[in-house]
Amino acid sequence: MVSKRIIRYIIIKVLVYLITLFVAFSIVFFFLRLIPGDPVSRFIRLIEQRYSIQLAQVTQEIINEYKRKFGLEGDIVTQYVSYLKRVFLEFDLGPSFLNFPNPVQDLIAWRLPWSIGLLGAATLISWAIGIIAGTLVGWKRGSKIDSIMFTISLCMSQVPFYLLALFLVMFLAYIFTIFPPRWAFSPTVTPGLNLAFISSVIYHATLPSLSLILISSLGWLISTRAITITILGEDYLLFAQAKGLRKIRILSRYLLRNTLLPQTTGLAMSLGFIVNGFYLVEWIFSYPGVGTLLVQAINALDYNTVQGVILISIFTVLTANLIIDLVYPLIDPRVRGE
Predict the structure, then answer these.
(1) Which of 137, 217, 297, 318 could cross-link 126 (Cys pair, CB 3.0–4.6 Å)?
(2) What is the model's pTM?
């Protein structure tokens, strides 16, 4: 039977989640309106550039119609109330400047799989490498390999993703021409479930993935090493060593397994940031994910698209945190007792 304490814990966490989601979204809405510039004028210039035409006479009636379509009618409070109704009651993020008149949710739905595929795979690979390498380095604490790896990790983990991405593009794409410098697949292949397309996607994703994996795995290595060194002093591990168990068994059954629990929590939070992060890496490689979409939307002052991407990001991160909070009582008895 679920105790009242657990029910109260769940209710509080869900309420905090909903309030945080609403406040964060509201802050984003009003913050965007502080950016100088007229979105409708930007949209008209975008049409002129895209179709190489001159809209010499744009009447006030046309401008008002665009404002109505994009939810820019009235004062800021009127726009806010209208947007809330449209998003939370009609589940409509509005039309996009970049792909007018298609709705923003369609644009994000097309881009999202690219970001999840690239960033999700890079996050999982870097997590696995960091956990294994961090456990081994922690196991060999005080040795030369520990000293070298820890020093390299401390230095390299502070390098921004986009800086490493620029180096990789310059050396491996433009100087040595080993990998393509941009886009997600070759224009000569037909998108679909065929070997040529899948191979092209993996080939084009190598450089952006590499820039993320190299930095992220070193961060995971540092934290895993610290956890491993703490575990090495535990009584059950000393007992296992005193029993004469083989090192490989102690390493896999006792050490690695006990580093996984806190690092799995960290992985869940990192996956929540997938939609959120690494925008500049996508932009550098012209990768067709939500990061590139966000940069394009900001340049075009496309409020609906920017709000849609950020709303999805906020929702993903907060939901990942909520799931972690709700799962904690099941795996950690100390939380149930608080």
Answers:
(1) 217
(2) 0.76
Cis peptide before 101 (omega within 30 of 0): yes
Amino acid residing at 178:
I
Which helix (DSSP H) or strand (DSSP E) does residue 248 occupy? helix 247-249
Q: How far is CA 322 from CA 69, 274, 331, in A?
A: 35, 16, 15
Residue with tokens 């895993």, as numbered in its chain: 224
**CB-based contact 220:153 (threshold 8 Å):** no
Q: What is the pLDDT confidence band of residue 125, given thresholds at 50, 70 and 90?
A: very high
As beta bridge partners, residue 95 has 103
Q: Contact at 8 Å (CB) between 259 and 134?
A: yes
DSSP line for 290-308: HHHHHHHHHHTT-HHHHHH
Strand partners, 103: 95
| pLDDT tens figures, 22-59 | 898 888 888 888 877 778 877 777 777 777 666 666 67
Angstrom distance (rounded) from CA 263 to CA 129: 12
Measured distance CA(107)–CA(216) in Å, rounded: 29
Handedness of CA 312, 313, 315, 316 (dihedral sign): positive
By residue count, the chain amounts to 338
